[in-house]
Structures are given as structure tokens and as C-alpha cells.
Amino acid sequence: MYLEDAIKLKPSVELRIGFRGEFTSGWKEAQGRASNYAFDTAGVIATQPVVGNSPFTVNKAKFLPAPRVAIAWSPFASKKTVIRAGAGLYYALLDNLSYRLDQNGPYNAVSAVKNIAFSNIAPDAVYAGAKAIPSGVQPDLRTPTVESWTLKNRTTSLAEHGAGRQLRRIAWLPRMLSVDANLPTPTILPSFAVPGGLPSWSVFYYPPGAPLANHSVWNTTHWLSEGISSYHGLEVDVNRRLSHGLQFRGVYTFSKTLDDGRQHEYERCNKLSRVCGESASTQDRLRPGFFRLHHAAVFNAT
């Protein structure tokens, strides 16, 4: 469902208001074979998956309201300069979960065993010590949500040239994190034992050889809706038309990207230094994104 209305407040001011409403009954498996792992109250993954019509225990997408609003203002009588501002809420529906649920028992189980000779591997063989490799999604997964706002001004002239500036902010609240949901239980370090150079967060340690939280299954690949990400950008766009159809255009963007991809830190700590830090503060957890690009410029001529 989508509704939109444009209101001319003044000859130089226009307001647009929109609303999009989405809903879904949740991702379902047609034959009742959706297999997903649950977690106990301590956050430890179960040994056996739960099988049913849906991988979700709670449907958090029954109603997804997405309001939008925008305004345009031309402050001068010449109407050569226009200032625009807008904000809105957007959703990315979860319709690709089969990729993350395609290796769970009892219908499509994947297991692994360590330290066996290659010569002992054979079709349909049973190996002592083999354990399942779980895969799945958060049972109460939330729909990835984008908050966006822009502030833009554009100036044109009869000389066939124009210039524009735009401020943009995009935030994913929440966004998907791909995590290992079966790490060892960490040991919290007292402040006097924190290695030098680490931030003043809650610091914990994975002892060498520590068992996984659930030692009956191997490490997992899970999607959790626990991440946050933000993008802030300043864009400058200048174009100029000359005679004989010749046109030049240059665009420059300065941006900053922050995210909460702590899983990368977990894996690095677990496999290398084994010492990790985590803050309870959202601001402390935000770090420059792995896909950040502070400066970008494009120039073309036609």
C-alpha cells in the first residue's frame, strides 16, 4: 500500500508526504521442512534444529510502516535556486533465507570431522567424532531497515551551467550480521590484566583449546539482525554546457561510513591474539566500515 500527496503551500514552496505500508506472513517452507536452530536463555545454540513451517518463532514483519516527507523551496523570484530536503523509512524484505537454511538436518545435514587420513574418506562412511555444522538465522529476526535523509540545493542559470550541493545520511537500523553463533565462552579479564594498548572496554579472553559453548556441534554461520551502520556524505555536482553540444560535468563526494561489524573482530581475536574487547555503548562499538571510501570524484565530457 502506498499513498502520496503534494501540497503547494506557497508559489515557492511545495510539500510532499508519502506513506508505504508493507506486511508479510513471514518466510515459509511449502512442505513444512524449514529447519533452524534455537538458542537457550543463555544464548547457547541447541544441538538439534527445530523443524516446522517457518524458521521464525516470532514474525516481526506483520506491519512495516514507512513514512516519507519532502519539501522544495525556491527562495528567489528567479526560481534559479531550489533547496530540497527529504526524509524517509525503507525496508528490505527477507526473501532470500533459503540460502542460509540449506544445510541443516534432518533433510540436508552437513557434518564435519577433524584429523582423519584422506585415504580413510569414503562414500557413505560413518566417522567417529563427526558433528553437525549448524547454519541459520535469528529465530526472531527483524527486517533490515533504512533511515534516510537528504538536504540539497541546486542553482542553474541561463548560461547553461549549474551547481549543486547535497548532504546525505543513510542508517541501517538494524542490518544483518553474519556471525559464528557457537564461540567458546570467554573469560572476563580484570582491569589489571588488560594488555597495553587495548581500549578501556570490557575485555575478555579465549583460552587456548577452550571448548565451544555447545561442544556437541561445530562453529556456525548465522544471520543476526543485531548490526547497525551509517553513511554520511557531502556531494558537490557542477556541470557546464558549451557551444556545439559540448558538456562537462564533475562530481565530488566526501563521505564517512561507520558500522558495528564486531564479528570480524571476534574471529580475529579467537584465531590470533584471543583477546577481545566489547563496549556496551553503541557509539563505542561503531568503527569505520570495511567498505568506506572517504573521497570519490568523477569527471566526464560529452
Question: Which SSEs are present, and which pair or pack?
Answer:
Blueprint: E1 2-10, E2 13-22, E3 34-36, E4 50-52, E5 64-73, E6 81-91, E7 111-112, E8 131-132, E9 135-137, E10 145-156, E11 161-179, E12 187-188, E13 202-205, E14 221-241, E15 247-259, H1 262-273, E16 275-278, H2 282-285, E17 287-288, E18 295-301
Parallel strand pairs: 9-14
Antiparallel strand pairs: 1-2, 2-5, 3-4, 5-6, 6-10, 7-8, 10-11, 11-14, 12-13, 13-16, 14-15, 15-17, 15-18
Q: Overview of this structure, please?
A:
The chain is mostly beta strands and 302 residues long. The protein has one domain (2-301). 5% of the residues lie in helices and 45% in strands. The chain has helices at residues 262-273, 282-285; strands at 2-10, 13-22, 34-36, 50-52, 64-73, 81-91, 111-112, 131-132, 135-137, 145-156, 161-179, 187-188, 202-205, 221-241, 247-259, 275-278, 287-288, 295-301. Strands 1, 2, 5, 6, 9, 10, 11, 14, 15, 17 and 18 form an 11-stranded mixed beta sheet that branches. The protein has a 3-stranded antiparallel beta sheet with strand order 12-13-16. A two-stranded antiparallel ribbon has the order 3-4. Strand 5 (64-73) and strand 6 form a beta hairpin. The radius of gyration is 26 Å and the shape is elongated. Mean pLDDT is 83; it is low at 263-268 and 270-275.
